[in-house]
Each structure stands twice: as structure tokens, then as C-alpha cells.
Design brief:
The protein is about 50% helix and about 10% strand. The protein is built from 19 helices and eleven strands. The chain has a four-stranded mixed sheet with strand order 1-2-7-4, with helices on both faces. Strands 3-11-8 form a three-stranded antiparallel sheet. A two-stranded antiparallel ribbon has the order 5-6. The structure holds protoporphyrin IX containing FE. Protoporphyrin IX containing FE binds next to helix 14 and helix 19.
Length: about 475
């Protein structure tokens, strides 16, 4: 094999079974990380798959030519209603055609539009109003933060038809259907045994479900829901209408409302657990009774209380806290696989034949090189404020991936996280509730990672200076 010279366990060079086993157990990230610790930044993890963990490789794989390499069939798992969407589209030319239909709705300048930002701000305030009603009693921030994330993304997609799951039981049920599902083994079964899966899904009716609360909600709005002109759905409809009117371009055929539903469903799903889990891990850590966590809370509160009118971009400590949270507990910590183009390529000086699967994973990018991130397991927001090494740290920060196929929702997610933390920590201090026994260990799903017991009990208390 042209990969024979690469470091890695002999068994992995001979068969994919060890990797598959860890994938089915939700352990792929840890397995790959352990191999990096043993073999270094380049490791062969399966006969046809190589994992990398440095910026040179990430640059080539994810940003060469703008969008990097095409995706492998793993991403077929993310189509909805039997229709592809931007995330599930494998080939980068087609991907670009889809992206241009609505990309501007996720730009920083669009998010700064008061009509758009106020939708998210309202939900952040709704969360704070809710916790204010029960100060001094345990509150499950796992639930609250996932409701907040769901309300924010559905507002961004569909305002005024967005959900209000923080206060509306029907919306809460949708959050629960989305966030408490267990699809990991089913997803890998479908990937590796497509024929068996077809038989199984025919017999059981499982698969690209059209039923369920989330599917019903999205399909109904995508078909004929009336939404504001600043929403993502409105932009897609305008692009669809334009596309249908022009008969020339063949790269991206016109969409019908089901294609639109598939796209919106993907954004909805991408926007709830990522932001919800990221905030939950972060707020849990800030609430710990350690001197280090208390110090971070105090410094964060001081910055927010002293600059109540400052724009979010002018709050450097808030920015550092969010970035450090996403570094340590990346909501998507595992590999983003890509396929080496035909003809082969050099990745970080390593010659790879076309068709080789390559990837980097945030979990390892954020830990392996201790010259870039010293004491990598420690949560130290201050590291982002140091001038020395800032370029390197940013090049290794991989929570949103990189290049044209990196996270389109990055600015939205950062806005949500910062608005929420600003609302909470300007007014309240948080600490772990006495009855909190749930595990906060990172529990990997097909593409994201959530707290193991999906519960995080916290107390909110007013800061002394507000009493
Ligand atoms: C902290 C929160 C978030 C994190 C850490 C995150 C991370 C990521 C990452 C790593 C990818 C690339 C994955 C891959 O290539 O396999 C991605 C893609 C994507 N994300 Fe996010 N995401 C977050 C929030 C959001 C939100 C709020 C949305 C809402 C729309 C969103 C929508 C998407 C979409 C649509 C893609 C596919 C992009 C494409 O194919 O071009 N994400 N995200």
C-alpha cells in the first residue's frame, strides 16, 4: 500500500474493524486521539484512512481551492426527507451552488441588523427571566440552554414562526425529541450496512422519517409558512424563485419546497445541540467551586458590569471565555472526513493517493501541540489575551472547522453564546447545585458530543454589587 510507510498500529493498516468498533461505541475521537499521542501528528487509522493533527494538514484538507477536498459518503447520513442539503452534499461545486442561495443570512453584517439580533436577544432575556423566577433553587441548565438554542435557530430560520420552547410546552417537546435521541449506532449501521439498513427500514418504517414533531413543524413551515423577509427561509424562497425563472445554469437545479425543508431541517439540527452543549459545558465549568472557576466568573462579571453598553465585539474577556470553552469542550470534537482528489495530493509533506480518507479533529488540534496550547486540559481564557503566539493559536483553533465548508453558523453561534453569557453573568453568579450528581463527561454522538447524563443542575444567585 502507498500508505504502508505511515505510522500507526499494524491492525489498523490491515483492517477497518478497530476503527469501526470504536465508531459504534461512540469512542472514535478518544481512539484517534490516543493514536496521535502515541504516533504523532500523522497516523494511519484504517487501511485507507489517515488522521492529521497540525495546521499545515488542516489548511490543505479544508481550505485548498477555497473549500478543500470533497466529502465521503459518511455525509449522506445527513440528508433529510430523502433530499440532500448543503451539509450532506459531497461534491464541492454542487455545495457552492447551494451555499450561495442563503450564505448572506449567516454573515456578521446580517446578524447585526437590529431585526435579526433582537430575535436572539429576546430569547436570551427570556432565559434570564425564567431563572429569575426561581433563584436559589436548582435549575437544569441543560434543558434551558437547549431550549434557548432551539428558539434562537428557529427564530433565525422562520421568524415569527420560531419556537418558544423556554415557555411553551409544545416547543419543549420538540427540544426533547431532538436532544434526547440516540442515533449513533443506527447511523453507523446505515453507513456500513446499507443493504441491511434498507431491509430494516422497510420493515420498521425507520429512516428518513417524515413523522415526528420536528419534521411536521419544519415541513409545514417550509411548504407555506409566512415568515419575515430577514429570515433564512425567506432568502431561500427568493433564490428558488429566481432559479426557476432562469433556465440557464445547470449546476444547481431549481428546488421545490421539500429541498427547502431538508435545508432548514439541517440548520435547525446543526444549531441546537452544538450551541446548547457548548454553553452547557462552559457554564458547568464556570459554576464549579474551584478558585480558578470563581476567578473567571468574577473577571467576566467585572467586564460586563463595567461596560453595560459595550458592543459584544468590545468585550475581550467574554470573547476569550467563549473561545476557551469551545477549545476545551468543542461541541463537534471528532474528525471531519474528506477524500483526497483523484491524482493524489501531498498533505503536510505526505504523499497520498486519490481516494484516501483524511481528516483532522478539533479535540486533538486543541491539545496535541503543547507549545501552542500549554497545559491543554486546563480552562484558561487568559491564553487568548496574550499577544505572543496569537496567530498560531488561531490557526489551531478548529471548533468550527475551516474553509468554505466550515461552519456557516459560526457567527450566529458566537452571537448566541455571547448574548446569553452577557445576560446571565452581568446579573448572576452560578454555582453547582447540591443535588447535582449527573455526569458531565463528553458523550460522543454521530457528529456532536453532549454531557453524558444530559442534566446539569445549577443555582443562580445575584451578585453582591446588585443586591
Ligand atoms: C458552537 C456552535 C457550533 C459549532 C462548534 C459548530 C461546528 C461546526 C463544524 C465543525 C462544522 C463542519 C463539520 C464537518 O465538516 O463535518 C459545521 C458545519 C455546519 N454548521 Fe455549525 N457549529 C455550530 C453552530 C451552528 C449553528 C448555530 C448553525 C445554524 C445554522 C450551524 C450550521 C452549520 C451548517 C449548515 C454546517 C454545514 C456547512 C457546510 O456544509 O458548508 N452550526 N459546524
Amino acid at each position: 500500500s502507498p500508505l504502508a510507510h505511515l505510522p500507526g498500529p499494524t491492525l489498523c493498516a490491515l483492517t477497518r474493524l478497530p476503527l469501526m468498533y470504536h465508531e459504534f461505541c461512540g469512542n472514535r475521537r478518544k481512539f484517534v486521539h490516543a493514536l496521535h499521542l502515541k504516533y504523532g501528528p500523522v497516523v494511519r487509522i484504517a487501511p485507507n484512512e489517515v488522521a492529521f493533527a497540525n495546521r499545515e494538514a488542516a489548511k490543505e484538507i479544508y481550505t485548498s481551492g477555497g473549500s478543500g477536498y470533497d466529502k465521503p459518503p459518511f455525509y449522506d447520513l445527513f440528508s433529510n426527507f430523502d433530499r440532500p442539503n448543503m451539509f450532506s452534499t459531497l461534491e464541492k461545486g454542487k455545495h457552492a451552488g447551494i451555499k450561495k442561495r442563503f450564505a448572506d443570512r449567516y454573515s456578521k453584517s446580517h446578524l447585526m441588523d437590529p431585526d435579526v439580533a433582537s430575535v436572539i436577544q429576546d430569547h436570551a432575556e427570556a432565559l434570564v427571566a425564567k431563572v429569575s423566577e426561581s433563584l436559589g433553587t436548582s435549575q437544569d441548565i441543560y434543558v434551558l440552554l437547549h431550549c434557548f438554542a432551539l428558539d434562537a435557530i428557529t427564530g433565525h430560520l422562520f421568524h415569527p414562526r420560531g419556537l418558544h420552547s423556554l415557555n411553551d410546552p409544545a416547543g419543549l417537546k420538540i427540544m426533547q425529541e431532538l436532544s434526547y435521541s440516540n442515533g449513533l449506532r443506527r447511523a453507523f449501521f446505515r453507513l456500513y450496512f446499507p443493504t441491511l439498513w434498507k431491509v430494516y427500514s422497510k420493515l420498521t418504517g425507520e429512516g428518513n422519517r417524515r413523522e415526528g414533531l420536528v419534521a411536521t413543524y419544519v415541513l409545514e413551515i417550509a411548504r407555506d409558512g409566512t415568515v419575515a423577509s430577514h429570515t433564512v427561509l425567506s432568502k431561500i424562497r427568493t433564490a428558488n424563485a429566481r432559479k426557476s425563472a432562469s433556465s440557464t445554469a445547470s449546476d444547481t437545479p431549481p428546488w421545490d419546497w421539500k429541498d427547502t425543508a431538508s435545508e432548514c431541517m439541517d440548520h435547525l439540527v446543526a444549531g441546537i445541540d452544538t450551541t446548547g452543549d457548548g454553553l452547557c459545558f462552559l457554564m458547568h465549568h464556570l459554576s464549579l467551586p474551584t478558585a480558578a472557576s470563581q476567578r473567571v466568573q468574577q473577571r467576566l462579571h467585572d467586564e460586563l458590569a463595567q461596560n453595560p453598553e459595550a458592543p459584544l465585539d468590545d468585550l475581550p474577556y467574554l470573547d476569550a471565555v467563549v473561545k476557551e470553552g469551545l477549545r476545551v469542550w468543542s461541541p463537534i470534537p471528532m474528525s471531519f472526513p474528506r477524500v483526497v482528489p483523484s491524482g493524489g495530493r501531498f498533505v503536510d509533506g505526505v504523499s497520498l493517493p486519490g481516494g484516501t480518507i483524511v481528516s483532522c479533529q478539533p479535540y486533538t488540534m486543541h491539545r496535541l501541540d503543547t507549545g501552542v496550547f500549554p497545559d491543554p486540559e486546563a480552562f484558561v481564557p487568559e491564553r487568548w489575551l496574550e499577544r505572543e503566539g496569537v496567530m498560531e493559536r488561531n490557526q489551531y483553533f478548529f471548533a468550527f472547522a475551516a474553509g468554505g465548508r466550515g461552519c456557516i453558523g459560526k457567527h450566529l453561534a458566537l452571537l448566541e453564546m455571547k448574548m446569553l453569557l452577557k445576560e446571565v453573568y452581568s446579573r448572576y453568579r452560578t454555582c453547582i447545585a447540591p443535588d447535582m450528581t449527573a455526569s458531565m463527561e463528553q458523550d460522543d454522538q454521530t457528529i456532536s458530543s453532549r454531557p453524558k447524563d444530559q442534566k446539569c443542575l445549577v443555582l443562580f444567585e445575584k451578585w453582591d454589587d446588585d443586591l
